[in-house]
């Protein structure tokens, strides 16, 4: 446990050359990335973080301040006890947390990641999240369905208590996005990769490209068939692409990759 966050090692590989931290989308816990564990190359150790109020920690109060969450994530990934280089991949709100964690590391003089992957989230410039989220939050069940990237299960619709339990972490992460205030800073000197779904109603290819303004090296989006949660039907293809993109960067810095 580190200040309210827990590191979750999804597949222990103490001899792996690189740690790959995957940060989950709104409302999800570290287990969201469990299907990746057996697919990543042997040179990478799959990790995530467990946030209060999400996943197995739904009984705990949620954190809704981006800066606070990012500072805790930064502390976990820049681990003095583990000198291995690391990389970050964030899906949806996890991408924003990853981005702010890297900014926090830069400001504090910490180690920066070898690479960062952003999936299914537009750039944070110009109050973009408030404009996109508010109509969905005011849109009732249809808006919630768009937020989760698919239809709401009938068992939730029939049980208001269960629905509240399921929606609370999602709404907490929506507050995290709404509370976020973008700051103009120099571009991050970290290799970037972009991923998205071809039918994602929340993030278009053009919106993914907004991240290029915030990094020193531009990336071309890798698009997969599907919506906001495209990865559910494209897990193997996405992991192969992530491994290739990370590997292309990591092999220059880490001979074992």
From TrEMBL:
Keywords: Hydrolase. Residues 19-244 form the Thioesterase domain. One of its GO terms (biological process) is lipid biosynthetic process. It comes from Streptomyces muensis. GO terms for molecular function: hydrolase activity. InterPro entries: AB_hydrolase_fold, TEII, Thioesterase. This is Alpha/beta fold hydrolase. The keyword Hydrolase applies. Belongs to the thioesterase family.
